[in-house]
Amino acid sequence: MPPVLNVSGLTKIYGAQRAVDHLSFQVHAGEIVGLLGLNGAGKSTTINMILGVLEPNEGRIVIQGHDVARERQAALQCTNFSAVYAPLPGNLTVEQNLRIFGMIYAVPSLQARIEQVLAEYDLTGFRTTRCGFLSSGENSRVLLAKAMLNSPQLLLLDEPTASIDPANAQDIRRHIQAFAKKRNGAVLWTSHNMYEVEEVCDRILILSHGRILLEGDPKTLPAAHGKATLEALFVEIARDSVPDGLNAGERS
């Protein structure tokens, strides 16, 4: 099967700085891929280019066979996004926000779909609550419910569990894993929580200065490169200090 997301040669330049530098990777159906790196490594820039918010200087992004540069609407119709730094309007209720975004995505049988996501994300009791009055964990569930409204094939998540308590974070992870495994969705996930990444992701890409320095299974990579934990490996790789034994074939 072709990948749900195919990124090739992606480059974004700001003045003299290359925020993303000829980045290439794929995400397949049923797969959760972690996009990791220090602040400024190019993670959010990459996601914004995939969403069509930023225009790349070079490269190509294809989602479900649709080139984002030429078929942005078709590509984004099967894509959605969630990030804690992009909250929904706080003066609107949960149901009002879901209705507006459902209309934007032209979700068929919208009311029935709203009822489904309200139940699935344990939000039925909050349908008339304004989002500005919700807790961080409740807002995270609303954001994820919004992202699932159009039943996307590709889900982009930028720090989806940041600033929420462990119980709510565990609930969010469970929903995302179910999306990938039970619904065969593709997920691209950024996080600074290495324990979360190891638990959730099938594969990780560690970025530095807009390039992939290392990729592979987060459960086996640390031992393969002489590190006790994924966090120890991440710190070393992200700072461009490549562990002994890392060969050129493992770099982007």
Structural features, described:
It is a single chain. This protein has 252 residues and is of the alpha/beta class. The chain has a domain at 5-78 and 152-250: Rossmann fold. Helices cover 34% and strands 24% of the residues. It is built from 9 helices and 10 strands. The protein has helices spanning 43-50, 72-77, 94-104, 110-120, 136-148, 166-182, 194-200, 221-224, 230-238, and strands at 5-14, 17-27, 32-36, 58-63, 66-67, 79-83, 154-158, 186-190, 203-208, 211-216. Helix 3 (94-104) crosses helix 4. It is globular and about 50 Å long. The two termini are 23 Å apart. Residues 241-252 have low confidence and may be disordered.
Give the helix/strand layout.
Blueprint: E1 5-14, E2 17-27, E3 32-36, H1 43-50, E4 58-63, E5 66-67, H2 72-77, E6 79-83, H3 94-104, H4 110-120, H5 136-148, E7 154-158, H6 166-182, E8 186-190, H7 194-200, E9 203-208, E10 211-216, H8 221-224, H9 230-238
Parallel strand pairs: 3-8, 3-9, 6-7, 7-8
Antiparallel strand pairs: 1-2, 1-4, 4-5, 9-10
Helix pairs in contact: 3-4
Shape: globular
- How many alpha or pi helices? 9
Number of DSSP E strands: 10
Uncertain spans = 241-252
Structural class category = alpha/beta
The CATH topology of the domain at 5-78 and 152-250 comes to Rossmann fold
| Mean pLDDT reading | 91
What is the class of the domain at 5-78 and 152-250 in the CATH system? Answer: Alpha Beta
Order of helices and strands: EEEHEEHEHHHEHEHEEHH
The CATH architecture assignment of the domain at 5-78 and 152-250 turns out to be: 3-Layer(aba) Sandwich
> What does the radius of gyration come to?
18 Å
**Strand arrangement across the biggest beta sheet:** 6-7-8-3-9-10
How would you sum up the major sheet?
6 strands, mixed
CATH superfamily of the domain at 5-78 and 152-250: P-loop containing nucleotide triphosphate hydrolases
Amount of beta strand: 15-25%
Ends apart, CA distance between termini: 23 Å
Helix percent band: 25-40%
